């Protein structure tokens, strides 16, 4: 009849020894499991966080694209002539933007109300944004990048205005009467329906358009 009392005393001693050695009665998870649980925990990301990330990445991608394109064109002009630059632009500019689009997993293009390359024709949404940019520009307002959230869609659209930055641009985009004959000829060959001319330095040329996947963007944050 004394057995239960002995068992109770033994269990109490065992528990005291465990606690004395630094053990707890709570279940302990291995460190690896704890790490995985933290990684899988839900991260709260607000619309403001997404907006900031889109602007940051959009600025970076378009700056890289713009710099790469201008460097290539400047090199071609130095190596040969404006004809070589137009030829490069016609054959390789799209390839350059496509490579950056693949690199960052976005949809990247340059669009304008006065197209040279048919591939740069704006969508209906982009058309509206370009017209808003043009109106603001004509009214003397400042133009900045903007972000459009598509309703009920995964895409987020980033846009940044493109300006005629220097006299160099006018050799291909200025008044046709001032273009060199070789430039006129090659533009006619490559772009028979070209309307991207008649600009002055500082004019709005168009805009960069970068479409991000919202799911993919959030996943990377």
From TrEMBL:
InterPro entries cross-referenced by the UniProt entry: Tll0287-like_dom
Domain Tll0287-like: 50-212
Name of the featured protein: DUF3365 domain-containing protein
Organism classification: Bacteria, Pseudomonadati, Bacteroidota, Cytophagia, Cytophagales
